[in-house]
Design a protein that fits this description.
Layout lengths: L18 H13 L18 E6 H4 L3 H10 L1 H10 L11 H17 L7 E7 L6 H10 L6 E4 L14 E6 L2 H9 L4 E4 L13 E5 L9 H9 L1 H10 L11 H15 L9 E7 L3 H14 L6 E4 L6 H7 L3 E4 L2 H9 L4 E3 L13 H5 L6
Parallel strand pairs: 1-2, 1-4, 2-3, 4-5, 6-7, 6-9, 7-8, 9-10
Antiparallel strand pairs: 5-10
Helix pairs in contact: 3-4, 8-9, 9-11, 12-13
């Protein structure tokens, strides 16, 4: 690695053993110390960080390149990428989310300069290493702080997720997402709305569905098998029994730990992380169990929105989250239609309920 801080050192054929040159080298060492203000901050260690694995196809807009790969094959794809490696990709659906993570990190470093409890983004892709130069150029162009790459040259990156201590994996590929979930890693398929809603640059906003996302699909199974009335009866009878955890409970827990670092500095009302529960449950008949479950886990949610079956899209348009997680595709579609970056969590009983058109839509990386 070369370091350029605006000072050029050269021997010009002179004897570096002279005292003047030893002094010059000593000055250079001082300039190049890790504490130099112009140096990027070191990334957190993975075991202490909240690690987000993001695929290149959701981080950046690679639709044209994906078409070349699918229609013309790998060699033409690599050739195209190399020929265009100085042209940065435009932002993809995960871009604003990652920028918000970096904004939170900036605030955390101000309060805890030595802390390694930060967000750590890993760009994970099965691209060939040749494509890495274009990805690096793109990251530098957009002034992103992404130091960790995982380029697997055609192999699935899923096997590396645990090695990176991944807390959340986002991809455009539903097959890889299911593989990650089977490994016990929180994961979701990210979709691109045609027009993305403008979101906050200073506060990370994350919205979750409840059943089969934060919670298990226990209650949803009752609803699917026996209908709404039996579902209400079941929830009333079990309102003091916490639901089992769902696939994204751990990610909410990780967000909560970082939130508490701000609360500890008296910044609860100015916290740059805000979480939302956006559920089709109704508050009076089935909301109690959801809230008691979160309390039993020791987790807080900033806002809980019980919609009683109403569409989620309009409410999400008001919230303007950077990311929304749901286990049912029609909620994902409704959110995307309103400009929200929505992610499908393929978990639970809802995935076994066949509906016309779902399988085709899940194989696409964008909603048209």
């Amino acid at each position: 690695m070369s370091v350029n801080n605006g000072h050029t050192l050269t021997t010009r054929g002179q004897d570096l053993t002279s005292s003047s040159h030893r002094a010059l080298l000593e000055d250079a060492r001082k300039l190049l110390k890790p504490s130099t203000p112009t140096r990027k901050p070191q990334p957190p260690k993975p075991e202490n960080a909240v690690t987000i694995g993001v695929s290149a196809r959701v981080m950046f807009n690679m639709e044209k390149e994906q078409q070349i790969y699918e229609q013309q094959g790998l060699e033409d794809y690599i050739k195209y990428q190399v020929e265009h490696e100085t042209q940065p990709f435009s932002p993809g659906p995960a871009f604003s989310f990652v920028k918000a993570l970096e904004a939170v990190n900036t605030r955390l470093r101000e309060l805890y300069p030595e802390s390694e409890e930060l967000f750590d983004v890993v760009l994970m892709t099965n691209n060939h290493a040749y494509v890495g130069l274009r990805l690096i150029n793109t990251i530098n162009h957009h002034q992103l702080f992404i130091e960790r790459f995982c380029m697997t040259g055609g192999n699935s990156p899923i096997g590396y997720l645990k090695a990176y201590h991944t807390n959340l994996y986002l991809s455009a590929d539903p097959v890889k997402v299911r593989e990650a979930l089977e490994e016990g890693i929180a994961a979701a398929t990210m979709f691109t709305p045609e027009k993305m809603t403008e979101v906050s640059e200073t506060q990370l906003r994350v919205a979750f569905d409840g059943d089969a996302v934060l919670f298990s699909d226990e209650s949803e199974r009752i609803y699917k098998a026996h209908g709404l009335d039996k579902f209400f009866e079941h929830e009333k009878a079990h309102e003091n029994k916490p639901l089992d955890h769902g696939p994204l409970k751990g990610f909410l827990e990780a967000l909560g730990k970082l939130q508490k670092k701000f609360y500890g500095k008296g910044q609860r009302m100015d916290c740059p992380i805000r979480t939302y529960l956006v559920t089709a449950r109704s508050a009076a008949s089935s909301g109690t169990r959801a809230l008691k479950t979160l309390r039993s886990w020791g987790l807080e949610i900033d806002e809980a929105l019980f919609l009683a079956g109403a569409p989620k899209g309009p409410m999400l348009e008001k919230i303007r989250p950077h990311i929304f997680f749901d286990d049912q595709m029609f909620h994902v579609e409704g959110a995307a239609e309103m400009g929200t970056v929505a992610c499908h969590v393929p978990y639970g009983i809802a995935q076994r309920v066949a509906r016309k058109g779902i399988n085709d839509k899940e194989t696409s990386s964008s909603l048209k």
